[in-house]
Amino acid sequence: MAAAGEKARVVLVGGGPAGSLFAKTMEGHADVVLLDPKEYLEIPWSELRSMVEPSFAERSLIYHKDYLNDTTIVTSSAVNITEDAVLTADGQSLPYDYLVIATGHALTSPASRAERLKEFQRDNGKIESSESVLIIGGGPTGVELAAEIAVDYPGKKVTLIHRGPRLLEFMGEKASKKCLDWLTSKKVDVLLQQSVDLGSLSDTEKVYKTSGGETVRADCHFVCIGKPLSSSWLHDTILKESLDSKGRVMVENDLRVKGYNNIFAIGDITDIPEIKQGYNAQKHALLVAKNLKLLIKGLPNSKLSTYSTGYPLALVSLGRKEGLAQIPFLTICGCLPGKIKSGDLFIGKTRKQIGLSG
Ligand SMILES: Cc1cc2nc3c(=O)[nH]c(=O)nc-3n(C[C@H](O)[C@H](O)[C@H](O)COP(=O)(O)OP(=O)(O)OC[C@H]3O[C@@H](n4cnc5c(N)ncnc54)[C@H](O)[C@@H]3O)c2cc1C
């Protein structure tokens, strides 16, 4: 434990929407170390807009050092945890009194912000130079990308192929139907219950055979299948017994990891039964910051606040002006949900939450 008079040492693993807000909220209350392999926070739900408008990413890729003033930033990955330290890929040992796991989904972005900006420019170049685009995967990423391209480049032929029986399977059937109707109205070809062999894809490929025997011609393709959780690094750690069968970290209702008094988990990595959304991840972050402040002050575990899941809200953007919202007892498609999300994609709001101008 930290010596008398010293601040508690908190190590936070993962600087996504959950981790970034947690770190910001804890500044001044503890010695916080943020460990993230990327030097920046990426607001994931802006990715598809950045592919059609690369300058959009200037506001949604935020250097950790630009919003954190009193946090030690370590740019590396966690590879192991002991009872009192986190071990990093570059050989450091980060001692902790309290540990927060916020590793969400497996990393696919480069460590450097400049490199990530270049990726968006390359993706945009691919879209611009193609007359036809194939999108593989009909979850939120594939649907939002298809919509962005259909709205910004109405002359391009977009085909969306999805292995499952309906689009947006994390939402209800009404939402799937409205989404399909919307995409069809924008002349996107949607192929359901079909797939293409991901192993056979190449950048020069222009003809794709589907599992249903169809042939799709497209000048380029984007693979938009869900990313796995970033919990494989926990398999040989003290937390291996705290993972469920899907690799999610099991938490108590005060968001402490099951079996541990001083380890918390927040965001998409948790086994909380709710739709995995950034706004929920941010709620976890605020609750754990509140609970940690109480523990640091010496209050007993019985005083910790508990988390309760809210309504299963979901909002998918459909280009710049329209969207699809699922709220209790109602699913709406069109300009009203679009007004809430699709213009700025909550980037200004997310920036303000971590103390930056919108
Ligand atoms: C297309 C799309 C649209 C979405 N739209 C919305 C929306 O409108 N509203 C909404 O609320 N949510 C939305 N979401 C969901 C939202 O993006 C996630 O719920 C949110 O990103 C979860 O945040 P997180 O911090 O838990 O995890 P992540 O965002 O996955 O962040 C994890 C962080 O951990 C780091 N990390 C990973 N492994 C390690 C390791 N071993 N060591 C150290 N660091 C590590 C990563 O670098 C990253 O910084 C959308 C998602 C998608 C894909």
From TrEMBL:
SUPFAM superfamilies referenced in this protein's UniProt entry, alphabetically: FAD/NAD(P)-binding domain (SSF51905)
Name of this protein: FAD/NAD(P)-binding domain-containing protein
A Gene Ontology molecular function term of the record: flavin adenine dinucleotide binding
FAD/NAD(P)-binding domain segment(s): 9-285
Keyword annotations of the record: FAD, Flavoprotein, Oxidoreductase
Annotated function: Putative FAD-dependent oxidoreductase.
Family that this chain belongs to: Belongs to the FAD-dependent oxidoreductase family.
InterPro entries per UniProt: FAD/NAD-bd_sf, FAD/NAD-binding_dom
Cellular component, GO annotation: cytoplasm
